[in-house]
Design goal:
With 511 residues, the protein is an alpha/beta fold. Helix content is 27%, strand content 16%. It is built from 14 helices and 16 strands. Strand 4, helix 6 and strand 5 (171-176) form a beta-alpha-beta unit. Its cofactor is Ca(2+).
């Protein structure tokens, strides 16, 4: 930890928490609850039974949705992995911390000539999480928690960032630098993730077994375990017996042609998936669900469940495009991962807070992943750090059926993506969301409470609201120093696209 980080953290824990009156004198650390944070990759809002999935089977998560507090409108700060992961750790919006694209990121439109880009998108202004940030891990480590990071990192190169141990974690396990992994041994060329693994071993099983070993260990201080699953990121792969089970289920679905299965959206350059129907995706998700259940049960078996705060959520919406391997589908939400439509931003969120959550609790209030940092500090009775988690608000009032104090939520994803999305920024205020599409040069306005599928564009009928919300969005982006796409002088919509085979060969050559 740098001297600046130590000073910042010490200052934070010796001041009065913003708005909650917590003084420096606190209960002994051994009396504080544990914290288990479970992050699922590409976790679609409708990937769970309790949100309406009938093809997937998630009995463990469905059960937890009744026991935990269920958040029906949880938004990720970005429709992409790396930006959200940095936001969870820092409490800051991607527009502010600068990681706006997956890392290492690309500045060009995948498989397209530069002339197809109407606007030029720079690579993220920050190529990794900054060392100057006081992460959630460091905040808890400083007050005496035993901290551990298991699974997918994807917040910058390990050589540059130092990985979890350089950002507040005492120990780490199976740290995936970016996206290089697979569900089965040898884990896409990385057998070192689990040195004792053998042919047929499943990554999610092994990661969970090690997590159970960690939380079950006897210790004289509380723990903070950040468990970042690689599931449900591509490449998707299922255990054979589960894939067989869901293949039988898929055969009973009504037939759909390729055109019926794909949604052709005027604001997407690629079609996306309409229906959940892929057996391998369902099988992998079933394995993940079973392992989450096992982990929660281990806390109960060791008598720690009633003294452990638990978060279960995702890093962005479900991947709905036919890209690399089987996708999911999140309808009635629009689009999916990489889009600033609801399908790319909404993900499940379940929270267990001993003594506060009761069976059946749920809220329709919109929340976002930057809120987790101040919320966890508040749950632990620790002072807030408003200069650190600038874009997050504590969710504690919701547990007492009170309103949150938030003016607006913002998104900034100024990049072209192969899944079909164009560069865009967005703002949500009250029931309305406004999206600025830099490539199509248009603005859309939706009432996302009455119209969750974002089918009725109100921009033409509500010009004053569009003006006010757009100005507010642009003021925020200017205040945070966000990179705004600029016009491409080489733009030529008539330019010939790169042939699919040539693009594939170029990709293989790069590997």
């Amino acid at each position: 930890m740098t001297n600046n980080k130590v000073i910042a953290t010490l200052c934070a824990v010796t001041t009065i928490a913003s708005g909650c009156g917590v003084q420096a004198a606190e209960p002994p650390i051994e009396n504080k609850p544990n914290v288990l944070f479970v992050l699922i990759d590409d976790f679609g809002w409708k990937d769970v039974g309790y949100n309406g999935s009938t093809f997937y089977e998630t009995p463990e998560l469905d059960k937890l949705s009744k026991d935990f507090m269920r958040f029906d409108r949880c938004y990720t700060p970005s429709p992409m992995c790396s930006p959200t992961r940095v936001s969870i750790m820092t409490g800051k919006n991607p527009a502010r911390h600068g990681v706006t694209q997956w890392l290492p990121g690309k500045a060009t439109w995948p498989n397209h000539p530069v002339a197809h880009q109407r606007v030029i998108c720079k690579v993220p202004k920050s190529p990794a999480i900054k060392n100057s940030e006081v992460t959630l891990g460091e905040a808890l480590q400083k007050v005496g928690y035993e901290t551990a990071f298991y699974g997918k990192w994807h917040m910058g190169p390990l050589k540059k960032t130092g990985g979890p141990k350089a950002h507040g974690f005492d120990s780490q396990m199976a740290v995936i630098e970016a996206n290089r992994c697979a569900m089965f041994y040898p884990f896409r060329g990385h057998p070192e993730y689990f040195p004792a693994a053998k042919e047929g071993d499943n990554f999610t099983d092994l990661l969970t077994n090690n997590a159970i070993e960690f939380v079950s260990k006897k210790r004289d201080k509380p723990f903070f375990l950040y468990l970042a699953h690689f599931a449900m990121h591509a490449p998707i792969a299922s255990k054979p017996e589960l894939e067989k089970k869901f293949a039988e289920k898929a055969r009973k679905l009504s037939p759909m042609s390729e055109d019926e299965l794909k949604v052709k959206d005027s604001h997407a350059h690629q079609p996306y998936n309409r229906r959940q129907q892929f057996p391998d995706y369902a099988g992998e998700l079933a394995t993940l669900d079973e392992n989450i259940g096992k982990l929660i049960q281990s806390l109960k078996d060791t008598g720690q469940y009633d003294n452990t705060i638990i978060f279960i959520t995702g890093d962005n919406g479900g991947r709905t495009a036919f890209f690399h391997s089987s996708p999911t589908a999140v309808q009635p939400l629009r689009a999916g991962k990489t889009f600033t439509f609801e399908g790319g931003l909404r993900t499940p969120l379940l929270i267990h807070w001993p003594g506060a959550t009761k069976p059946g609790m749920h809220t329709q209030t919109s929340v976002t992943s930057t809120d987790f940092y101040p919320t966890i500090l508040g749950m632990l009775g620790l002072p807030l750090q408003p200069e650190q988690h600038k874009d997050g608000v504590s969710l504690l009032p919701l547990f007492k059926d009170r309103k949150l104090s938030r003016n607006a939520m913002y998104w900034h994803f100024p990049h072209y993506q192969g899944e079909g999305s164009y560069p865009s920024s967005a703002i949500r205020q009250d029931d309305f969301k406004l999206i600025v599409n830099y490539h199509l040069k248009d603005v859309q306005l939706f009432n996302v409470v009455d119209d969750i599928g974002e089918t009725n564009d109100l921009a033409g009928s509500m010009p004053e609201k569009v003006k006010v919300m757009r100005n507010k969005l642009m003021d925020y982006l200017k205040e945070t120093g966000a990179h705004i796409p600029t016009d491409n002088p080489r733009y030529n919509p008539k330019a010939k696209p790169i042939p699919a085979k040539k693009a594939k060969d170029a990709k293989e050559k790069k590997k």
